[in-house]
Design brief:
By secondary structure, the protein is of the alpha/beta class. The protein folds into 2 domains: 2-26 and 129-255, HAD superfamily/HAD-like (Rossmann fold, 3-Layer(aba) Sandwich), CATH 3.40.50; 28-124, no CATH class. Helix content is 42%, strand content 18%. The chain is built from 9 helices and 11 strands. It has a 6-stranded parallel beta sheet with strand order 7-6-3-8-9-10, with helices on both faces. The longest helix is centred in the first third of the chain and has 22 residues, at 27-48.
């Protein structure tokens, strides 16, 4: 057991459970690039089929496009942030199907687009841990806290991204959407992580950048749900948090005497 301080308050805990994208790693640095690739490939296929977006690209992805047509921001409760790979494939394949492409061809095309985008990520490894994260993780480990990742990404991809960022040796376990029956906001990921760490949910603190993370924490019975809004971003979607921080500098770790 150790103590975590936030906003002038102190909480005793045994474990910290972190979301990955937007919480450990800069979301736009990694997934913004991936989604831009996917958007451009999908748009080219729509044009080749003589069609266009049903609705808009922004609605399909759950993003905000800048004046240059590139992704500038994303909806923390939208498809890009929360959908599984198969769910997002379905969303985009439906766009191609609406433009006249047969369904199976649409699905195959989107899977090909995603594979090409993944290959680019593997070459460039565009991961950037949030400022102050690594020092906080090391302090937490030194204080005896157990650390886990709970993500809507696949476990394999999460492990790979943590390795790219040089953070893989700092976590006791990593849990992806593919390892549970129901993803966020269901409690499954948090409960699985607590079991793997040998702790009770009521002794774990969840840290995440989305409302689904906070709801997962609440349903699991976690001791605390901390929202993070890096870079001074909007905090409206974190209204259900017990505390909200803008950076990891606002958290402190105090070892138990």
């Amino acid at each position: 057991m150790a103590f975590l301080t936030v906003g002038g308050r102190t909480f005793e805990c045994e474990a910290l459970l972190f979301d990955k994208d937007g919480t450990l790693l800069d979301f736009m640095e990694l997934w913004g690039r991936w989604a831009d690739d996917l958007l451009q490939q999908t748009e080219a296929a729509l044009q080749a089929a003589g069609g266009g977006w049903t609705g808009s690209a922004e609605q399909a992805f759950g993003v905000v496009l800048g004046p240059d047509g590139r992704i500038a921001d994303y909806d923390r409760g939208g498809p890009l942030a929360l959908a599984t790979a198969e769910e997002l494939t379905g969303v985009l394949a439906w766009q191609l199907y609406g433009a006249g492409m047969p369904w199976h061809d649409s699905v195959d095309a989107v899977r090909g687009f995603a594979a090409a985008a993944e290959e680019r990520l593997a070459r460039e490894r565009p991961v950037r841990p949030l400022p102050g994260l690594e020092s906080l993780l090391r302090e937490a480990r030194q204080a005896g806290l157990k650390l886990a990742v709970v993500t809507s990404d696949t476990t394999e991809a999460a492990v790979r991204h943590l390795h790219w960022a040089g953070l893989d040796g700092l976590f006791d376990s990593v849990h992806g959407r593919d390892g549970v029956d129901a993803g966020k906001p269901a409690p499954d990921l948090a409960l699985q992580a607590c079991r793997s760490l040998g702790t009770e949910p009521g002794r774990a603190i969840v840290i995440g950048d989305g409302g689904a993370d906070l709801e997962m924490a609440r349903r699991a019975g976690a001791a605390l749900a901390i929202g993070i809004a890096p870079g001074g971003g909007s905090r409206l979607h974190l209204a259900g948090a017990d505390a909200v921080i803008g950076s990891y500098a606002e958290l402190g770790i105090v070892p138990r005497a």
